[in-house]
Design goal:
heterodimer, A: 325 residues, B: 305 residues, 71% helix
Chain lengths: 325, 305
């Protein structure tokens, strides 16, 4: 287990380095920052000073060396637009994104698993068919369009829910939270549901497939023959056995929820790091784009690592084959 | 193993004996799938014939009148033309804009998928047939690519290369090829060890011939299913990127751009500018997904029919 963990850690580091190179070379090929960031009225001397100040006069590889060196000390450059450290800017916005992503994921889990279980245990009933039809919709509807329709129905037509921003927040442990105020919760509901819908459909399908397979197994028959109540058989025996793939998917999908929050945040003007990314791309604020990508890469590598390790704890069979390979 | 299901099958559908007919009969078993196919064909016909069936050319500025801007569905323009689905902020007929938008969305999605399939097919076959280091290298790149969500990869690529039809097609190819490479490799690995390949080797056929004439056709069914699903994904992704303002330029409005264009009017109750292009997008994606679902069932040899 220790050797496996160490090798996974090493692999993660290599991945980080490769990604930093790809991200840097890619993003530093966008447009000409000199035209964009320095006011057109500036004279030649001011432009040159600005170029030196921003480090844009050095060759690309040297800019990369500086970038890596600084990245290791937690400095990913200053935002051209805000003139604050890019990482700081992103970390400021991160709690909003994380709050949205976690609430969305919880929504998907708390609705998806029971619905999927029901659809799997009574596959021919009308509600089960409705659930499955709904999950096809959830897969097919583009996230951004669902967001627009939610706004159209609940904000414009019915006027029940606010459509933009985070609402009132409270500070807890030094972080702003929307979920602990009534106003914030109202603001959170639509974006979180919007983000949750796709994962909800995925979990419904996954749970249903797992449940349909599990109820045919001998251990279920045995548990029933032992005289256990159906509730216990499903709640303990079946659920335990179908949890392994579900936990993996939840872990892996969390990263994609964070990525997709870019779309949801843009629609609902949620002040998270996804909206910051889109704004930064639009004004070619490259340090912020690079910093966002590096933060996301670190997050993804970390999530993958946790899922892998969690998976091998949940299912000992993986550990054996995993360390042999 | 394969002899028994095929015997059962030929007994069940006795008269339809050609493979194509058997396929069609199996497909037609689901009414929803047939309906989805009809809708999909209708959408494709609409997209292809857009210049002839549209009430106006939505991008010929001479035909637009700013006085007709943001009319609700059913209103008439100053010249007496009826805006069946309303008009947008420049007095453009939404129905015509949707026909043209479908053309661009489908064109981008399908062409990107075709190129990505070719690349994935070639790399997947090479990986499976060559094995060893080449296989490991290709599959590591595939793993790396697939460990990041498509939308993130596409966003970054577009941030790098800028906007345009060609750029977005490149981005869609980049996020798709890995799926095909993986699918083809896994089925080619299975096919490679089958007896007919051994027989072909005994006949001393060249590796290229074995690969392309013998293994390749047997890898196609799963690839077709994945490609159909991916066309839908590509269209949705393009729409999302265009919505975010990173996809197509305003001169070539796909459905996503039309929706984005109506977003600002949504809050003032002018729903039709966003709603109808979205509905067209939804119908397109859903019909493709339903067709793909049925194709998966029909083409899957394990679900012996």
């Amino acid at each position: 287990m220790l050797a496996y963990t160490i090798r996974r850690l090493f692999l993660s580091l290599v991945l980080l380095l490769v990604m930093s190179l790809l991200v840097f070379v890619g993003v530093y090929a966008i447009g000409n920052p000199v035209d964009l960031l320095i006011s057109p009225e500036a004279d030649q001397k001011e432009i040159e000073q600005a170029i030196v100040a921003l480090g844009l006069d050095k060759p690309l590889w040297e800019q990369y060396v500086i970038f890596v060196k600084n990245a290791l000390s937690g400095d990913l450059g200053r935002s051209f637009a805000f003139s604050t450290p890019a990482v700081e800017l992103i970390l400021q916005r991160m709690p909003a994104t994380m709050e949205l992503a976690i609430v969305a994921m919880l929504m998907a889990i708390l609705l998806g698993i029971p619905l999927g279980l029901y659809a799997g245990l009574k596959p021919d009933s009308m509600p089960a068919k409705a659930i499955m039809a709904g999950s096809i919709f959830g897969f097919s509807l583009p996230t951004f369009w669902v967001g627009l329709m939610l706004i159209m129905i609940f904000s414009v037509q019915l006027g029940w829910l606010p459509s933009t921003g985070r609402g009132e927040t409270v500070v807890l442990f030094g972080i702003h939270w929307s979920i602990f105020t009534w106003d914030g919760l109202q603001h959170l509901l639509m974006p979180a549901f919007n983000l949750a819908l796709f994962k909800l459909s995925l979990l419904v399908r996954l749970t249903r497939a797992g449940a349909r397979e599990a109820v045919l197994q001998d251990y279920v028959k045995f548990a029933r023959a032992k005289g256990l109540r159906m509730r216990r058989v499903i709640g303990v025996h079946v659920l335990k056995n179908i949890m392994i793939p579900i936990v993996t998917v939840i872990g892996l999908e969390f990263g994609s929820v964070v990525a997709f929050s870019i779309v949801t945040e843009t629609i609902f003007a949620w002040p998270g790091m996804g909206k910051l990314l889109i704004d930064s791309i639009n004004v070619l604020d490259r340090p912020v784009v690079v910093a966002y990508l590096m933060v996301i890469v670190v997050l993804f590598v970390f999530i993958n690592l946790v899922v892998d390790l969690l998976y091998s704890t949940l299912d000992p069979r993986i550990r054996v084959t995993g360390s042999a390979a | 193993m394969s002899a028994i299901p095929s015997a059962v099958e030929s007994a069940a559908v006795e008269r339809s004996d050609t493979p194509w007919r058997r396929f069609a009969a199996a497909y037609a078993e689901s009414r929803i799938a047939v309906a989805a196919l009809v809708v999909l064909v209708a959408i494709i016909v609409m997209a292809l014939s857009a210049p002839w069936i549209s009430p106006q050319n939505p991008y010929d500025l001479a035909q637009l009148d700013i006085m007709d801007a943001r009319l609700p569905p059913g209103e008439q323009s100053a010249t007496g033309m009826t805006f069946v689905l309303g008009s947008d902020d420049q007095g453009r007929d939404m129905l015509s804009a949707i026909f043209y938008g479908l053309r661009i969305s489908l064109g981008v999605g399908i062409s990107a998928t075709l190129v990505a399939v070719s690349i994935g097919l070639a790399l997947g076959l090479v990986a499976a047939y060559a094995g060893g280091r080449i296989d490991a290298l290709i599959m590591r790149v595939v793993d790396l690519q697939l460990s990041f969500p498509a939308i993130l990869v596409a966003l970054v690529l577009l941030a790098v290369v800028g906007q345009g039809v060609d750029k977005i097609i490149i981005a869609l190819i980049m996020v798709q090829w890995a799926y095909y490479a993986r699918t083809v490799r896994s089925s080619a690995l299975v096919e490679r060890n089958k007896e007919y390949v051994e027989a072909a080797r005994c006949l001393r056929l060249s590796p290229a011939r074995i690969l392309f004439r013998h293994i390749l056709p047997n890898c196609l069914p799963p690839l077709i299913v994945v490609a159909t699903v991916q066309v839908a994904h590509a269209i949705a992704l393009e729409a999302t990127l265009s919505f975010l303002g990173l996809g197509l330029p305003i001169t070539q409005p796909s459905l996503g751009l039309l929706i984005a264009n109506g977003f600002s009017y949504l809050l003032s109750g002018k729903y039709w500018i966003s709603f109808y292009p979205g509905l067209a997008l939804l119908l397109t994606i859903m019909s493709i997904n339903l067709v793909a679902d049925q194709l998966r069932d029909v083409l899957n040899p394990r679900l012996a029919r």
